[in-house]
Design goal:
By secondary structure, this protein is α/β, with parallel strands linked by helices. Helices cover 43% and strands 15% of the residues.
């Protein structure tokens, strides 16, 4: 296989570690912090996790390593969607294992959690792992979305580990995967299996964060990748001066990606779902807001612009959420068969009109016909609307077009509006990790082994002080239960890690809100360019604008 020059150069990059992890494993000791409790529902979470709840947060520091000397056989799993840097978590874990004892073994379970259940694995060696250092993707062992959540699965996992002599599992994943890690750790502890479970915080969506986890890995690289593309589109828009570009970006449950890309590129419009929900904005209000920018720019002779739309925006619109709930009820059970038996859209439309409330039908009637039909095409396994499939970038451009036509008829708008559409998703999930993500992920993996060596279980590998240079980063661990609360899932109360939404009182959003009126009218585009791997530290090791503003 022919390698690109950049790939060769990235293999040779030596990731930076936090200062205390550079001392050598023999000179790393533990500093105990305070006992922890869950973010909410403390009594319920404690009852569900009697063996792993309330443990201390810990940090590593320079000192005599007092851990028990023994042979370690560790399994690692990549879980959920890809995120840049995942390979380096595995590499950091492997290097720490081998630095402690060359006889230590790292098993990679293939295809995500299902690899553990099916005993499908490989054993890492230098030759194999060196092919993946500092590269994007999850192809080192593959990933999957199987959930570890039943006692039968836990029992199988314990048997597989026992078969190979594995005494620790590292799960690299997002909020759901780390919730599964906490439940698995509790099962192993309750059954005295001697198997530890450690999690690592991954998601490009940025919604696995809190006072302890400053940033999930992959967010830095993905948003830099999207911002480069958005900047390129903005340069094209400013050159051609005849298109409005509606760009949807990843972020189903939170708008962190959209906000970070806006801070990086300064588009004319960026919708923030959390603000839409807080202000109870309607589709019409959102449309007016975008159309106002189009009209004001047209008055200056600028019939072009850029709007960033978060992937999950419609779920934050209260009236749209009610509409979805009514549609789900409308097509529940045998009623779906009756609907699907209708042969024309006109017949189906009449069925819908008869089944929705007057308020929801008014919302439905606003939607372009293509979007209306999308709501009734593919359903999830529970028979519900797949909101993530709604092309919200096309929804809003179509509604803005109608809004502007009405303004033109009223004589309040005399511009030209032509829209182009983009969805930036998979482009960012497997990019070559930035230096920040390469360093951060390697540190998370290295640190995960330190937690294993000292006997911790149900902990998340934690590296903080991330806005500072890497030698000032602080490594340690926190009980996963600290991040948990009880939520209603599929008709039952479940312990889950609370998703982190964009904080409207936070510094990143406040900076955006203070500047967006200017950006909406003027052309203030910023062109970030490609991720830089070589050169001045202030260019190559740049953190996200979100992290910089939060830690300013």
């Amino acid at each position: 296989m022919k390698l690109s020059p950049l790939q060769i150069a990235r293999y040779q990059y030596n990731p930076k570690l936090p200062g205390m992890l550079r001392n050598g494993i023999a000179e790393i000791c533990v500093k105990n912090g305070e006992p922890t409790e869950s973010v909410a529902d403390q009594e319920k979470i404690k009852a569900l996790f009697p063996n792993t709840y309330g443990k201390n947060e810990i940090t590593f520091q320079k000192g005599q390593n007092t851990s028990e000397a023994k042979l370690h056989k560790v399994g690692v799993i990549l879980s959920g969607g890809q995120a840049p840097g995942g390979h380096n978590v595995v590499c950091g874990l492997y290097d720490a294992l081998k630095a402690t004892n060359s006889d230590n073994v790292l098993y990679g379970f293939k295809g995500g959690p299902s690899g553990l259940l099916e005993d499908d694995y490989l054993i890492f060696d230098d030759e194999y792992i060196n092919q993946f250092r500092n590269t994007g993707g999850f192809d080192i062992i593959g990933s999957g979305r199987t959930k570890l959540e039943t006692e039968d699965q836990f029992a199988i996992a314990a048997e597989v580990c026992k078969k190979h002599g594995i005494t620790a599992i590292v799960i690299i994943g997002g909020d759901d995967s780390n919730t599964n890690a906490a439940v698995l750790a509790e099962y192993f502890a309750a059954h005295n299996t001697g198997i530890q479970v450690i999690g690592c915080p991954k998601t490009i969506d940025g919604d696995l964060k809190n006072e302890d986890i400053e940033c999930s890995f992959g967010f830095d690289t993905a948003t830099k990748t999207y911002s480069e593309i958005i900047g390129n589109i903005q340069r094209d828009a400013n050159s051609a001066k005849k298109y409005w570009h509606f760009i949807k970006v990843m972020g189903r449950s939170a708008s962190h990606v959209a906000l970070e890309c806006a801070l990086e590129t300064q588009p004319n419009i960026c919708l923030i779902g959390e603000e839409v929900a807080a202000k109870k904005m309607s589709l019409a209000q959102i449309t007016d807001y975008i159309a106002d920018s189009v009209a004001m720019r047209a008055a200056k002779g600028w019939n072009f612009g850029v709007a960033i739309i978060p992937e999950g925006i419609v779920e934050f619109v209260p009236e749209f959420s009610v509409l979805i709930a009514e549609i789900n009820e409308l097509l529940a059970g045998s009623k779906a068969d009756a609907f699907n038996a209708l042969s024309t859209w006109a017949e189906k439309y009449a069925f819908i009109e008869a089944g929705l409330t007057k308020e929801s039908m008014a919302v439905f009637a606003q939607l372009p016909e293509g979007i209306q039909q999308q709501l009734f095409l593919e359903r999830d396994p529970h028979g519900n609307v797949q909101v993530s499939l709604i092309e919200s970038e096309k929804l809003f451009s179509a509604m803005v077009k109608e809004n502007l036509a009405a303004r033109k008829a009223a004589g309040t708008y005399n511009g030209k509006f032509s829209a182009l559409h983009h969805f930036l998703g998979y482009e960012g999930r497997c990019a070559f990790p930035s230096n920040f993500d390469a360093d951060y992920c390697y540190s998370l993996g290295y640190n995960a082994f330190m937690l294993i060596q000292y006997g911790y279980t149900g902990y998340l590998s934690k590296v903080s002080n991330l806005s500072k240079p890497a030698d000032e980063w602080v490594a340690g661990g926190m009980p996963i239960t600290k991040m948990m609360n009880i939520e209603r899932r599929h008709g039952a109360d479940k312990p889950v890690i609370r998703k982190a939404l964009v904080e409207l009182e936070g510094a990143p959003f406040k900076f955006f809100a203070a500047n967006r009126e200017l950006w909406a009218v003027e052309t203030c585009f910023v062109y970030p360019g490609a991720i830089q791997y070589f050169g001045p530290t202030e260019v190559c090791d740049l953190t996200t604008r979100t992290l910089a503003l939060e830690k300013a």
